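Consortium newsletter contribution from the modelling node. Members have asked for a concrete example of what our holo predictions look like. Here is one, prepared for the manganese (II) ion complex that several groups have been discussing at recent meetings.
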Amino acid sequence: MTQMNFTDKSKKTLRVALVANGKYQSKRVWHKLFQALRDEDKFYLTKHHPDVVISIGGDGMLLSAFHMYEKELETVRFVGIHTGHLGFYTDYLDSEVDKLIADLREDKGETISYPILRVTMTLSDGRKVKARALNEATIKRIEKTMVADIKVNGGLFERFRGDGLSVATPTGSTAYNKSLGGAILHPTIQAMQMTEIASLNNRVFRTLGSPIIVPRGEKIEVVPKRLGQYLVTVDNKTYRHKDIAKIEFDIDRKKIQFINSANHTGFWERVRDAFIGESEE
Ligand code: NAP
Ligand code: MN
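And here is the predicted structure:
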């Protein structure tokens, strides 16, 4: 007896959203993909509730794509085409558009997922503001030294004085976190990393000084001790808030899912390509 197999994902129509940055090369790739996918039954191009989001640009563009669809993380898978220098979140070169289309035709729904950060800010009037970060979130005081108590799982860890703090995801560890002297974490590690931004350290004031890596299920809390304006960044977005009561960080229940193609190069290979390059014998 023959039976149609409706669970075979390779037969299912894929709803695809294309997002690109303003670069000329990105627009060219967008047009090429648009024309190729439009004419195939397998694909349905739409911005609404896509199964796959193709981000064309760099890591910055993928960060934007993530925030466009951050409310649909359970159903959306991302894939990046990079039209700039080597990207961490981008698997295909702009010369590999045909390869991406071929891989999507054969798509079996395979994914690779990475942890993201949950940020919960409580303002002094009690209002809560929530956000998710793919790379990191930072808090800085706009004027004067930031003074803040840092709590881990509710207990006081240290009193911090300095410019600010950053809490990064494993995939964000190669971004701002790296510039702050943080360690690079393999993205399968379910943890977040807090690094200091120019802490004050002398005989009177003392912080740990080194980054800390905190596992999923644990919580970091930053309680500012001075009134004033604070700058909070979440990936590529910046918010100004007056009088923040506290800001909490933990690993989100949800994860970001990427298409797991053969093009998904190993993480350490990307780190090496991005920061070390070719070695001379
Ligand atoms: P941007 O200023 O254009 O990006 C800064 C650089 O970081 C770009 O080269 C970007 O790559 C790269 N980048 C982004 N995510 C990365 C990752 N996970 N691993 C390695 N490199 C990464 O701004 P943007 O493109 O909107 O990116 C926002 C990010 O910039 C923030 O999340 C933060 O991590 C980073 N940043 C870094 C510093 C610093 O290092 N001092 C300061 C502020 C912000 P593309 O060119 O491919 O976009
Ligand atoms: Mn960028």
